[in-house]
Amino acid sequence: MARPGTVAGVEELLVRVAVPAPFQAPFTYRLPAGSPAPDRGVRVVVPFGGRRMVGVVTGPAAEAGGLSLREVAQVLDEEPLVPPPLLDLADFVASHYLAPPGECLRLVMPPAGVRASRAVVRLLRRDAETADPVVRALEKGPLRVSALTKRLGRDPQARLARLKKAGIVGVEQELGGSGFREVQVAVRSETEAAPKGRAQAEVLQRLAAAGGRQRVADLIRDRPSLRGAVARLAESGALRIEEERRLRAPSELPTVDGAPLEPTAEQSAVLALLVEAVGAGGFRPFLLHGVTGSGKTEVYLRCVEAALERGRGAILLVPEIALTPMLVRAARGRFGATVSVLHSELSVGERHDEWWRIREGEARVVVGARSAVFAPMPEVGIVVVDEEHDAAYKQDESPRYHGRDVAVLRAQLEGCPVLLGSATPSVESYANAVKGKYTALRLPRRIGPQGLPRVEIVDRREVLRQGGDLILSPALKEALAARLERGEQSLVLLNRRGYATSLLCRECGQQAMCPNCSVSLTLHHGGRTALCHYCGHEAKAPTTCPSCRGAYLRLSGYGTERVAESVARALPKARVERLDRDRAARRGVLAQTLAAFEAGEIDVLVGTQMIAKGHDFPRVTLVGVVDADVGLGFPDFRAAEGTFQLLTQVAGRAGRGETAGEVILQSHWPDHYALGLACAQDYPAFFEREMEFRRTMGYPPQAALLNLVVRSEDPARGRTEAEALAAALRASAPGRYRLLGPAHAPLARLRSEHRFQILLKGHRPKMRDAVRLALVARYGEQRWPGIVVDVDPLTVM
To answer: Which of 154, 248, 358, 589 could be cross-linked to 349 through a Cys-Cys bond (beta carbons 3.0 to 4.6 Å apart)?
Structure first.
């Protein structure tokens, strides 16, 4: 700890505190007189502007230099709630992504609802060293660390660490304020007190039938009038009322039998290396490239099993919440109640309880989406990133971190292996495997008798020339009908939600545009509602053109709503359901729909990319892709990679059971290499083809990217700011990186702000340092108003 500063002759301790707000550096506060110096990672309440905020101590501060500082209002924790590797991880995210440290620390801290916590020391062994002052102090009962410190007159941390290691004392965190939900439980007492009246007798009979212990609410559920009898029995001593923690468990798909499957020879070879690495400990990154249906999930679960056998935990990441129910179900079938789930769709109470189950060691296996990489698990034995290629691992708001890359660093900080798995690895990860930075593992064959599905590409240009349906080609329609007749299931993919993509005026040619963004409005609910997918603007669909007042408006394009409508019209006897972000936004719909489809209650499931990966539906024998070209038209260097990955993944959903699968891709561009190689599931050939383009253009992994976006409601001011920053960056490090721009971003206006883009290509640390210096020089160390910094962007839209 640095020496305290001096203000007006009074010696005081100063600390740096990061607040959860968009500030690029912590603030300095003074501690109340006589307060001990809090450790790094302790939460404190500090005055900030006209309000109070919960911040995190990042360390001691230097002398104030005569400045008058505000005082810390309250120290919430006696010791940090998260282990040091997580604090280091938050520091890395802030440094690597040029993100505000307070926002990064919020990722690793307890969720909303957790207020003060106090460390309580308990004596575990009465036959312990009675000469030790800590043991003597605890003989009359547990004490808070703060009370123990006052009683001993010195800091007991070193002594506590020794006693904890010897198993003599235990240290627990007690929550203050909002915490776990407590419920009353009735427990039969040994007292022989006789019941008075029939009501009391009935209560005791019910309690005896329940084994002598039952929650009060359950005991009297069908007869609330018995509550008075319960109270009187508690007063007489015939029973006692205890408080019991009631966990708010997330509602996922039900657990199924999780008996391990016998591994194939290829799985056994892969597992031999992975289990050895888990047992040896130490950081080691692996890339598991396994075709769809090759048994990657079984490999993940056996790696988790190896970590648990060695007394360590495991973190399993999936890119989307839609994939958590299946993996949670499989994990719980194998490992039981020790499995926890973390994702943003949980309620505040559920997230609170799951976080603390992990923190207290009750849950040793964490399954979740991107943010689960920050789970407060001690002693992590392996980190698994499923579908590591998926763009959903990249957060599109501050802090703009990539979950896969953060997972690799988490494993490095924890000293454990990390396993990245995919049927279509990202070009960056595969390049790391080619260079030997990652250990490459392969599962080249699908498990099961049928092998990979047969793929057919339908040329939609020819279909339309012959007057065919705009959405369902004759080949796809016939294949859907054949599956329905045989009692098999089908998936239909269109990676575009809504009913229609735009509303076009046939008189002036204008589209209905979002008033806040430079994009056309998407039509939903059968074309009755116009919605912007970027800012959320919603309005009733116009009946006349906003530009010329013409009355002749035409719906253009189509999304999943209209595709589901077309399928239902073509197959009137089919049970058709839709699953996309609009449907999944309603709580419980995602899990219910997937469960119904797996149970065979749905014949055709229409959806976006959330149905394309990670699912295992043995009854699915047909996959139809309505428009395989959706992603190829984007002005994005990853367009071909994203298309190849999506088509390969969705094709892998067909034929995973006893019946052979078929895939029909409808395309206006049937000769594109991404489609042909996806049909062949030839990833190595695609990688070589794609790397030629990346090397020529200087895109990742050939060079790193940093995207700098200047936002302003005034376009002239925005352009001026962008030009000034670009000039400073060109002058700061000539030859160290290439700079493109400034120019209008592809999405030139978003949420009423005009956007100007500066793109840097080159060496990441040099670009990052140059951007930080330029922004500090122009705006100062604390706030960079109107600036978006995206390090390693997945898209430059």
So the answer is: 248
